[in-house]
Design brief:
Elements: E1 3-8, H1 12-29, E2 36-41, H2 44-50, H3 53-65, H4 70-77, H5 81-94, E3 98-99, E4 105-106, E5 111-116
Parallel strand pairs: 1-2, 1-5
Antiparallel strand pairs: 3-4
Helix pairs in contact: 4-5
Amino acid sequence: MTQALVQVRADIDAAFAEEIELTKEAMRTGISSEPIVSFTFATLAQMFEVFTANRWDMIQKLQGSGPLSVRGLARALGRDVRRVHDDVSVLLDWGIIERNDDNKVFAPYDHIHLSADIRAAA
């Protein structure tokens, strides 16, 4: 099963340092400690710029349907093709969805976990 972790962490520098250490350990041993790809944001607002409600719907549709053309995805979602194309472009840029050899888009993660640390403003 392929997994992704979407996290919001106020201590984003520490999160990146942890990822670097995990990567170095995996390179040193040849064994990955976690089969997880992480997408880390410093604030909820940053996360919501990438993961809008429509984009979550798109990811879930792709997880359930398998690869689709952008037009087919728009049809399946009941949305305008241009708007779906724009959302696909953002998710492709972030690596949350991918294209296959047939130029269809698909969700490479079977499971996506969300994690958020929310703290009082200083």
